[in-house]
């Protein structure tokens, strides 16, 4: 009979080598798209709020903190202060922002 611990901690699905390679490739592509997006924000080609309007799953899964840190002259301390004022968790992802949080974030960063 399995113990309570065994029942509570299910094993992750076992993937075939091909499935694992495909998942790793998708993860690499997502990281690359996020890095390119953040680079465009740093270079002024895009504005930060384009992430809120994005349909790209890779962008939507980016953490808000990571997005805001890509804004020129926005370091970790300033970003943390903004997130705390608005009430956004430091671990929140873009797709997980509520309507009120999106509005507050736009107000807070209107000139950025």
Structure description:
This protein has a single domain, classed as Helicase, Ruva Protein, domain 3, CATH 1.10.8. The protein contains seven helices and no strands. The protein is globular, with a radius of gyration of 18 Å. By secondary structure, the protein is an all-alpha fold. Helices cover 59% and strands 0% of the residues.
Span between N and C termini? 59 Å
Number of strands: 0
Give the overall silhouette: globular
What is the class in the CATH system? Mainly Alpha
Number of helices: 7
Most strands sheet? none
User: What are the segments in which pLDDT stays under 50 over at least 5 consecutive residues?
Assistant: none
Helix content: 55-70%
Domain count: 1
The sequence of SSEs as H and E is HHHHHHH
Mean pLDDT: 92
CATH fold type: Helicase, Ruva Protein, domain 3
SS content category: mainly alpha
Give a nutshell description of this structure.
The chain has helices spanning 4-8, 17-42, 50-53, 57-60, 64-69, 76-86, 99-108.
Structural key phrases:
single chain; 112 residues; mainly alpha; Helicase, Ruva Protein, domain 3; 7 helices; 59% helix; 0% strand
